[in-house]
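Reviewers of the previous submission asked for a worked example of the structure-prediction workflow described in the proposal, so we include one complete record here. The input consisted solely of the amino acid sequence. No template or homolog information was supplied to the procedure at any stage.
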Amino acid sequence: MKKNLRLGPFAAVILIPLLIFTAFVAIVDPFFHYHGPLPGIAYTISEERYQNHGIVRNFDYEAMITGSSETQNFLASEFGNLWNVNTIKTSFAGGTFKEVNDLVKVALSNNKNLRYVLRSFDLNLLNTDKDALGYDNYPTYLYDKNPLNDYQYIFNKKVVLMAGMDILDGMMGKETTSFDQYARFADGKAYGREAVLRTYERSDVYEEKMELKEEDYKRIEGNITQNIIETAKAYPDVTFYFFIPPYSVCYWDTNVRGNSLDYVMDEIEFALSKLVEVDNVKVFSFCDKIDIAENLDNYIDTLHYSAEVNTFILESMKNDQGLMTKENYKDHIENLRKLYGEYDYEWIYEE
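From that input alone, the workflow returned the following structure tokens.
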């Protein structure tokens, strides 16, 4: 009996702080693991692979923008205004088709009001394994429904500090990060020819032509079947928008010099041949927008463009401009082969 009396205060010393930590993190919940944002707290939304999962499960929305860094500069409010829906943005820098699709499936299974999904269709990620992921050490304890491993969240020093800062920011009158600003990198970057040329070296000219092999076709088909087509067919009332980004002419120059232009065009053509058959998938290509692609003032590197280009993409999609169909996609590919195969790239490198 005396031993029990001695254990009581000792247990209290251990348990009370644990309960306080648990309650504090669970109530504030900076990663939205248990609930959506609470009034009076200014949540900092900045950790894509830690917060996106909670966002799609616990926020109210009818549309989501997601994908790789090509989607980070979209304004969710612009999509919302154009389609008249409440919109969130949950991008993944370097996000593969599978990583993005896994999040989309979580959103679809948790939100019966979801009507539109906008995703990037990244050419550099198309010919990859269907299960490829772009990140190591995922916080899986935030993704599953196992409460026993939530201790990694509750007793995480970074999480506790973040929760405290969110409360302090709310007390100072700050607001939760908007989905316009979340993951946005367009502001404060250097744009233009010099900025682009600093990011890469012009490749040598290769004589051997790259050609798609049977295993390439199988890999591409597996990737888009698992991570696009199956998901779309499972939710026929949801419209899935995909866009092929308008990469800069420097990207196409690399493919021409690497003798891989036809290889890339064959990849796109094969993927489009599958996607145009799905009724609720709408794929848009902006590869032919040469006025954008050759104006290097639009770019910070060979692939990433200004927020004004993101606005152009949204407005174009809303008006079905650039939409690929069964009738036009092959002509579009042939036009691209000619456009970038015959383009004079030398001006880019002239002093």
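Strands lie at 63-67, 87-91, 116-120, 239-244, 281-285. We consider this example representative of the routine output the project will generate in years two and three.
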